[in-house]
Amino acid sequence: MFKSGFIKLNKTEPPKEKATKTSNDRGVVYLGHVPHGFYENEMKHYFAQFGEVTNINIPKSKKTGKARGYAFVEFLYPEVAKVVAETMNNYLMHKKILVAKYLEPNQVKSNTFWRCNKNNIPLTIKNRSIQRKAMDRQLDPAQEKQSKAALKRRIQSLQKKLKSKGIEYEVQIAV
């Protein structure tokens, strides 16, 4: 008999399969020569016309934070990704010719989408360091008042310079 509190596990029973699709079941498209301004939100809306977009990864430079010019787009179904790759290859967009290639599941690295959106939350800033900097920039009320006063002084000095050159420039600042 078993002691109370212990459960006997049957090791011959196969593990239960997950109901959600893994990244191996999905289709990934590599995009090269991505034009400036065609980022996560724009890509998600543009590629939604083909099918459901599950993830988008646009690698960015560690030094500048700017996009490197290529991207990976993951679709729910591999068939959709193949159609997108065929359709978008050699597509002219903003004076650049896109390169689109369907990636086989064995070509996709496991960490390609590790920082990306997994829960279909609206795509926003992904880079954690940028998020931290944005949170650090939040000022307390006294600092905010000082920064607004400094901004007002700078605008007033610019207005004086412009007025001396014959240009009238009015700005309303709430302090």
Automatic annotation (TrEMBL):
<dbReference type="GO" id="GO:0003723">
    <property type="term" value="F:RNA binding"/>
</dbReference>
<dbReference type="InterPro" id="IPR035979">
    <property type="entry name" value="RBD_domain_sf"/>
</dbReference>
<dbReference type="InterPro" id="IPR012677">
    <property type="entry name" value="Nucleotide-bd_a/b_plait_sf"/>
</dbReference>
<feature type="region of interest" description="Disordered">
    <location>
        <begin position="1"/>
        <end position="22"/>
    </location>
</feature>
<keyword id="KW-0694">RNA-binding</keyword>
<feature type="domain" description="RRM">
    <location>
        <begin position="27"/>
        <end position="105"/>
    </location>
</feature>
<dbReference type="GO" id="GO:0005730">
    <property type="term" value="C:nucleolus"/>
</dbReference>
<dbReference type="InterPro" id="IPR000504">
    <property type="entry name" value="RRM_dom"/>
</dbReference>
<protein>
    <submittedName>
        <fullName>ACYPI006149 protein</fullName>
    </submittedName>
</protein>
<feature type="compositionally biased region" description="Basic and acidic residues">
    <location>
        <begin position="10"/>
        <end position="22"/>
    </location>
</feature>
<keyword id="KW-0539">Nucleus</keyword>
<dbReference type="Pfam" id="PF00076">
    <property type="entry name" value="RRM_1"/>
</dbReference>
